[in-house]
UniProtKB/TrEMBL annotation:
Top-level division of the source organism's lineage: Bacteria
Originating organism: Rhizobium leguminosarum bv. viciae
Protein name: Uncharacterized protein
Region (Disordered) location: 1-21
């Protein structure tokens, strides 16, 4: 049995309905079934939490009982992209941005400035992740501004 077949079997066992109806319980069952599919190996394990989060965002977007603002949906989708990029980089061995002993705040700022000024193609996800790291460190770099 391949990964896809195991995932489908897990989704069916989790109670995947045959059709999407307009009530929350069916959508929740679908998200749970897809999560079971992911946990059974249906998606790459590095991206599984991100895939689950993206699916949850999509369910919220189609839920007529919730009034979800487009700003909130956009931030949810974008943050899922940020998480995916961070997970990919962790899998490649990168890390330590949150430890001042390993990574000085000036280094993070220089990476951000490099992303903005020296790259031929801007990557908004990289810019956002570097901005998040600087923000979360709680430090204010001073460059004489």
């Amino acid at each position: 049995m391949n990964e896809h077949q195991r995932g489908v079997e897990a989704a069916v066992k989790a109670g995947m309905p045959r059709s999407i109806r307009d009530d929350r319980s069916h959508r929740d069952r679908i998200v749970d079934a897809i999560a079971a599919y992911i946990e059974a190996g249906g998606f790459d394990s590095v991206h599984a939490p991100v895939e689950t989060e993206l699916l949850t965002v999509k369910v919220k977007a189609t839920n007529k009982q919730e009034d979800v603002h487009p700003d909130d949906l956009a931030v949810d989708r974008f943050s899922a992209s940020m998480k995916a990029k961070l997970a990919k980089k962790r899998a490649e061995g990168f890390g330590g941005w949150d430890d001042p002993e390993q990574c000085h705040i000036d280094y993070l700022v220089s990476l951000l400035l490099q992303q903005i000024h020296e790259r031929a193609v801007l990557d908004p996800v990289d810019i956002a992740n570097l901005s998040m790291m600087i923000h979360e460190r709680g430090e204010t770099p001073d460059y004489g501004r």
